[in-house]
């Protein structure tokens, strides 16, 4: 049974987040997808193909954690990447996927590398459990594919071994980030994208 009040509340909050992310230029041309957990076994996710800067509460679908819709409409083509995270981590309450220029360009500029190491940045402290700049966080870069179930399986095996990983990149595609709730997820995404921009700039300066 879907909690319709919670569904509406989450949909309004995700639509507001979408406006903000669109203004930043991180979800151009209907790209990106967003979700929030409803309960232990379900989440709401953006409907496929919608403009993510102009979402209304009707542009969301409830799905189970096998990525199957449990309300009417067509959920995001990448729903399995969201539900994989909810299924693996019971503490996760929100997942955001963006096509920011930094995530897209840096993942392509790092052709041939499957790990991005972020070290010594003060802003690493925005990630859960980090309280010093004197540390490193590794972000995996997965190859892009239209086979979303296979990508979800790859992300799942990586995250089984690296449960503190705060997000991942898909090469030439974008970034996935998650958090205990939507505000936490937005904060982590903002920090991660800032760090990706820093890495990109360092790469430019070193070439
Ligand atoms: C507009 S191309 C982007 C899509 O292929 C996809 O990567 C994406 O992020 C949005 O897909 P969607 O099905 O709307 O959730
Ligand atoms: Zn995408």
Topology:
Elements: H1 4-23, E1 33-39, E2 42-46, E3 60-64, H2 79-88, E4 94-98, H3 101-109, E5 115-119, E6 136-142, H4 148-161, E7 167-170, E8 174-179, H5 182-206
Helix pairs in contact: 2-4, 3-5
Bound molecules: 5-S-methyl-1-O-phosphono-5-thio-D-ribulose and zinc ion (ZN).
5-S-methyl-1-O-phosphono-5-thio-D-ribulose (MRU) binds near residues 29, 30, 33, 78 and 97.
Structure characterization notes:
Zn(2+) binds at residues 97, 99. An eight-stranded mixed beta sheet has the order 3-2-1-4-8-7-6-5, with helices on both faces. With 207 residues, the chain is an alpha+beta fold. Helix content is 38%, strand content 21%. The chain contains five helices and eight strands. β7 and β8 form a beta hairpin. It has one domain (4-206): Class II aldolase/adducin N-terminal domain (L-fuculose-1-phosphate Aldolase). It is globular, with a radius of gyration of 16 Å. 5-S-methyl-1-O-phosphono-5-thio-D-ribulose is lined by residues 29-33, 46, 48-49, 76-78, 97. Zinc ion (ZN) binds at residues 31, 78, 97, 99, 173-174.
């Amino acid at each position: 049974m879907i909690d319709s009040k919670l569904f509406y509340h989450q949909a309004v909050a995700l639509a507001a987040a979408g406006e903000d992310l669109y203004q930043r230029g991180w979800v151009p041309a209907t790209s990106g997808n967003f979700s929030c957990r409803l309960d232990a076994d379900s989440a709401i996710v953006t409907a496929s193909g919608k403009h993510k800067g102009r979402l209304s509460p009707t542009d969301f679908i409830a799905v189970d954690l096998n990525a199957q819709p449990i309300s009417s409409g067509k959920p995001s083509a990448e729903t399995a990447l969201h539900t994989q995270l909810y299924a693996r981590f019971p503490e996760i309450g929100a997942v955001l996927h963006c096509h920011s220029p930094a995530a897209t360009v840096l993942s392509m500029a790092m052709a041939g590398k499957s790990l991005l190491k972020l070290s010594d940045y003060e802003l690493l402290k925005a990630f859960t459990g980090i309280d010093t700049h004197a540390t490193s966080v590794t972000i995996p870069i997965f190859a892009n594919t239209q086979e979303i179930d296979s990508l979800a399986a790859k992300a799942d095996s990586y995250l089984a071994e690296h449960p503190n990983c705060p997000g991942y990149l898909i090469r030439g595609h974008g970034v996935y980030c998650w958090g205990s709730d939507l505000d936490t997820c937005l904060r982590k995404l903002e920090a991660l994208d800032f760090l990706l921009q820093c890495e990109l700039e360092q790469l430019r300066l070193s070439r």
